[in-house]
TrEMBL record:
Residues 11-104 form the Flagellar hook-associated protein 2 N-terminal domain. It comes from the Bacteria. Homopentamer. Keywords: Bacterial flagellum, Cell projection, Cilium, Coiled coil, Flagellum, Secreted. It comes from Vreelandella olivaria. It is found in: Secreted; Bacterial flagellum. The lineage of its organism: Bacteria, Pseudomonadati, Pseudomonadota, Gammaproteobacteria, Oceanospirillales. This is Flagellar hook-associated protein 2. Residues 210-434 form the Flagellar hook-associated protein 2 C-terminal domain.
Amino acid sequence: MASISSLGIGSGLDLNGLLDDLQKAEKEKLVPIVERQETQQTKISAYGQLQSALSQFQTAAEALNDSALYESLSTSVGGSAITAAADEEAQPGSYNVTVDTLATRGTLASEGVAAADEAITAADQKLTLNFADGSTQEIDIASGSTLEDIRDTINATEDSGVNATIINDGTNYRLALSSSETGADASIADFSFDGTAPFTADTANTLQSGTDAALTVNGIDITSSTNQVEGAIQGVTLNLQEEGNSTVKVEQNTLKVREAVTGFVNAYNDLKDTISDLTSFNSDTGEAGELVGDSVVRTVESRLRGVLGGVVDGELSILSDIGISQKYDSGLGYSKLEIDEGKLNDAIANNQEALSTFFAGDTEEAGMAGQINTTIEQLLSSNGRVSGAIAGAENSKASLVEQYTRMEQSIEQTMSRYRSQFGQLDGMIAQMNQTSSYLTQQFDALDAQLGRS
């Protein structure tokens, strides 16, 4: 049989068009698989949103499951004489602070020299710095040093006890020394050279002794070599700013507790909004959320409802005792947590110990926050309902990818078979047409002969 280079040439039929139609029909078999893939991907995304909202609620609950939260203290300062900060050792109290004197640094200048950049030492020698507490510091000065070199050498010496600069008094240049630390004992008192002195200390005119800070806390006299006073009030650091009076109040940090409780309520309500979006159904349009009727969502809601409605041992035993209640919103069509500000304020201001017992308990899982954390941990664990649902959807999607590949291969095999069969058909019809044409010619010739006879 003669080969056909292009389908339809031999038969005159539109076999290519027919093959295209058959291929389109075959590829329709892929559509349900693609749709199921999209459904699984939508579910994976939806479960991911649920997982994220649960994780955020868990984080908010963990913040309340820390007894240190209810023991944290804050300081408030009245007046501008000081600032203050409390640490974990501080105790609640009120203090009157009077700053009489700030701690200052001692200063001293040298006699003047004519130029700052001309050599003034003829040999190597030692510069000895003397301090008010009787201590000394020796610094090696090289031969041929200028006033600038001496300044730089002092500043390059670790633990020299002073900072050096150069001041021009309008006529001469002077080496100016300032104690590195504040306080009377750290004050620079004098200096000298062990050889021929290039200049001397002007103690008569420029020496200003450093002073200790002097203050009173609730009438008790206190001195400090620095303006950062630690230990005068247990667990509180006072930073002296100026002379004058201030008050310091150390009290429980109610703001942190309130922020944590509010964050807990907001995170739960965000979770409820997410669940509502995922399970919504619009009867007018027929549009449905990705997880409408999903058993995993029902499990999540049921587990959390059980914990939030549960009882905790203690003076405060249920959420409503601290001013948190579930309220149905007819506009939304579901319940959300709501805060009774007055009741919560009272619990935070007057009963943080009971609040700590309610949320944090005496063990990690005893309080309300611990129970919520445990529940969500179970839901999100590798063998939990949410993670299991995600894994199941991912496995289904992977299986559908394999199914899609197999179907594509099957379609290609079918189309290859059709092309082969159509090629055979085309050749057969072509041969038949040739035979028909030949017979027609023979019959025409026979008719012509019979007609002549």
